Amino acid sequence: MNVKESMTALVKDLLGVALLLVFLLLFFNIERIKDTTTLPDSLVNVNTIFISIIIEAFPFILLGVFVSALIQIYVSEDTIQKYLPKNAIAALFPAAVLGAIFPICECAIVPVVRRLIKKGMPLHVGVVFLVGAPILNPVVFASTYYAFRNNPSVLYSRMGLAFILAIIIGAVIYFLFRKNNDQLKWSKEELLGKQVSNVITPTKKTNRIKQTMYHAADEFFMMGKYLIAGAFIAALFQTFLDRSILQALGSNEYSSTFVMMAFAYVLSLCSEADAFVAASFSNNFTTSSIIAFLVYGPMIDLKNTIMLLAFFKIKFVLAFITTVTVFVFGSVLLLHFFIL
After folding, report:
1. How many CA atoms lie within 13 A of 71 on its CB side?
2. Number of domains into which the chain is organized
3. Crossing angle of helices 123-136/287-299, nearest 10°?
4. Which residue segment(s) compose the domain that 18 sits in?
5. What per-residue string of b and e applies to 104-131 under the rule 16 or more CB within 10 Å gives b?
6. Which of 4-18, 218-232, 267-281, 296-310 has the highest mean pLDDT?
7. Residue 281 reports pLDDT greater than 90
8. 0.90 exceeded by the pTM?
């Protein structure tokens, strides 16, 4: 890394840390500041929402980066190739099933998928895991069940749509990028490591543990700064978005579905807690639009978009967002007209 690149990385890191420190300062001293100054309610709300997103997401980011680090140290490229079906389409189903096993929400899934792809997992299989795991995992199943105990169709629709759409979206990405499967952004150090990865291998257990901790720390600070930026933007949207307009649009099936998908994108809620927020909209929005909220948000939201843009090529990110949006919107409308 040259001097210019080092300075750019340092500035980004310092800005991310500075932003977090400013809002932490406001969060813990908000009452004192309100007593001594006239602070706008909107600023207080932005700060509160920002901190709540950070506190909610950081434990899952931490989980994600440790899983990512364990994959880096303990899972070889040969292992991934051994257990993946050779047929590209046949690999989609087991990837969706795998997503139902790991308790990883959308806050933590990006580093895990990124690491798996770096280890040799095909892009389209990683996408299945990316969109499926944040919804299909057992923690989300339980939270959705408790939030919609009086309407179990929401739970079954959420899980069923997520499983089917994960496979479909993965298939679409495969056909779009089968000629150019490498859509990750690689740094010079990563490219060098990619060339010598088969040469340098930790042999002692203590070395593996140390390297796991080093990788986890690097991933945490790398992902953390993008989470902070995404959380800040999401907090601004949540504060200044006119919710009365959203409620006025909630009676129409088409507009309510679109609005709730947009709302899910902007709010950037953790998938393990979003069901309780969705339940609060049940009196204002249709059931199918609530399902759209619960399916679309974990697949792609504002903070995830920023993370994806940081680590994947923009062409892939745009294609991914478009594919997810079109298929979620279309499938929810089909669900409404033919099942619900």
Report:
1. 21
2. 1
3. 130
4. 3-338
5. bbbbbbbbbbbbbbbbebbbbbbbbbbb
6. 296-310
7. no
8. no
